[in-house]
């Protein structure tokens, strides 16, 4: 048979095409809450917040929400204008040019890598505790072995495109909040009933007011709390997916705010009242408890069943939070590769699983490497990773916020709404983040900050700022060995139309 | 005749395309290549629609490769890319919409035993499809048939089970192919037989019954070869068969399949595991 010379046939695109089912209010709320991973975040940071600001921890939870809210407004405006997977990278490039945008994208990747290491550690510890293998939870080799296994497993699952279904997400969120709230209420009830024990103290309203704290402590606490609210912008950033993009994201944001802030404050109150601030037993000033104050809320409060439930909830929360971290970040690096900011290999899509498999695996291996490095170098890997994570997140949130202001600078005075939501609020949020970042970084240089020191430098400073600074030589390498088109502004600049298909 | 080919840019997909090519050339069929792209669900990060679009563009590139491979063999094909959660479901939908005669797919590549391995997509197809499914054995793309010369129908020895013979006869007459009936007799379904002679007698009786059956079905059919393979087990019976290039096997569905749907019964599954040629599974009448 003759081979016919035919022009390439354009395949027809059928079926649902581009529009996944639109989110309703509940879906929007669940996405916002799931992205924050509340049980895991609390477990990781609560002890350290208390360490930084003592009994004023509830005030910090309220205070830290404000810059997150302001930055989330920037996310909303930017994602409405340019709904690109590259998020901070794309918006940074469009506002400030290729170099700043690249570093912003790097900040994103760094935070994903650090959080994976932290998730592995927490999930391992809490799983061992849940199984009653407390000795193994203290054993470095066992922890690292299980933690490494978790990193590899989560990476492999993400590379294969296996995701938690929406129904499962709903269940996980309900369980997380259910357990946290119920156990906290039991604790408070026992405190007021007087059956909490001698160490319990009466909760004070003054705990909600951040008086008597110095700037360094506030900055340190805010950096930690950034992690607790990290991901909340999901409520506003996915407006395009919602059934009623005008109203639903706003209402969902309101609902999630109330749920999150109230739950965190409630848990903080419950723990502080129940455990007190003694330095023995379950007292919060007992150095042995800082790592896992949340479990204080388990056994002593409500017995071993509640304790087990809490441990399991935290472990599962940690592992499921990787879902909202790994694949989205891999899509971000895919976006960077499409714009030729990083090697084209990162744009590889697996023909069967249809995920950005190369980017996912690189991220998983980097996280594994960072985790092992952290374990070797750090006195307290958990604490150091959380603090450096807060730095990285504050860094790229700051870039996002300022990108919003600068990118929309010509439209700021077109309406009051623009002035506030594109200008003033993001500017305040970005400033907040920048100030917290600078003050904390300055403090972290001191070798007696945190738990680890590298000679005369604080360990957290080296890890946190070091990881961010590592982006500069990498960026120069990409510039030297790449096509240079990106760095000349040819592939992406302020006027590039991000290809958004007409679906709505 | 119309073929719907399920395709992904993997070796499995290439196997399916090679089989579609051979079938299209034998039966002068039109071919539609269908590639199903993974559905991306909202997860709290912006840019999902854009990313979905990128995936669809990748899908179009991949489907284009299949079309090019078919064109190189002289088969004209069109490609369609859809978004969906279930590959099998989308394939069946497409095939029904276009009144396909056959769904063609390659098998999984990571089985240990035999050249036909049933992966998740094939499994779903082989238990729900209302349209016959053609399966390519592993590695078929490396050594494909140019076209088919003979059709073999695996005829059940027990009455009441679904008979693929009518479908096989239709295929054979469509392209003037030789046709052969195959009866697989193993000691498993001769529980009552006391000794070897009885077994052999039962086998001969089975073969003769099949020939009469076929003659009744198509009065002026060409010579139908009737073959009986026997052994202690089904697998040892299958091992005694000799397959040549250009052979095609047709098997029926289990008798408890839903009407007009495929349900791969245990016997058919074992046959699949024991042969190296492309297999067509036919729905229950």
Automatic annotation (TrEMBL), chain A:
<keyword id="KW-1133">Transmembrane helix</keyword>
<feature type="transmembrane region" description="Helical">
    <location>
        <begin position="171"/>
        <end position="198"/>
    </location>
</feature>
<keyword id="KW-0812">Transmembrane</keyword>
<dbReference type="InterPro" id="IPR050367">
    <property type="entry name" value="APC_superfamily"/>
</dbReference>
<feature type="transmembrane region" description="Helical">
    <location>
        <begin position="460"/>
        <end position="482"/>
    </location>
</feature>
<feature type="transmembrane region" description="Helical">
    <location>
        <begin position="386"/>
        <end position="408"/>
    </location>
</feature>
<feature type="transmembrane region" description="Helical">
    <location>
        <begin position="140"/>
        <end position="159"/>
    </location>
</feature>
<feature type="transmembrane region" description="Helical">
    <location>
        <begin position="420"/>
        <end position="440"/>
    </location>
</feature>
<dbReference type="InterPro" id="IPR002293">
    <property type="entry name" value="AA/rel_permease1"/>
</dbReference>
<feature type="transmembrane region" description="Helical">
    <location>
        <begin position="218"/>
        <end position="239"/>
    </location>
</feature>
<protein>
    <submittedName>
        <fullName>Putative amino acid permease</fullName>
    </submittedName>
</protein>
<dbReference type="GO" id="GO:0022857">
    <property type="term" value="F:transmembrane transporter activity"/>
</dbReference>
<feature type="transmembrane region" description="Helical">
    <location>
        <begin position="57"/>
        <end position="75"/>
    </location>
</feature>
<dbReference type="Pfam" id="PF13520">
    <property type="entry name" value="AA_permease_2"/>
</dbReference>
<keyword id="KW-1003">Cell membrane</keyword>
<feature type="transmembrane region" description="Helical">
    <location>
        <begin position="96"/>
        <end position="128"/>
    </location>
</feature>
<feature type="transmembrane region" description="Helical">
    <location>
        <begin position="353"/>
        <end position="374"/>
    </location>
</feature>
<feature type="transmembrane region" description="Helical">
    <location>
        <begin position="25"/>
        <end position="51"/>
    </location>
</feature>
<keyword id="KW-0472">Membrane</keyword>
<comment type="similarity">
    <text>Belongs to the amino acid-polyamine-organocation (APC) superfamily.</text>
</comment>
<comment type="function">
    <text>Probable amino-acid or metabolite transport protein.</text>
</comment>
<feature type="transmembrane region" description="Helical">
    <location>
        <begin position="301"/>
        <end position="321"/>
    </location>
</feature>
<feature type="transmembrane region" description="Helical">
    <location>
        <begin position="251"/>
        <end position="271"/>
    </location>
</feature>
<dbReference type="GO" id="GO:0005886">
    <property type="term" value="C:plasma membrane"/>
</dbReference>
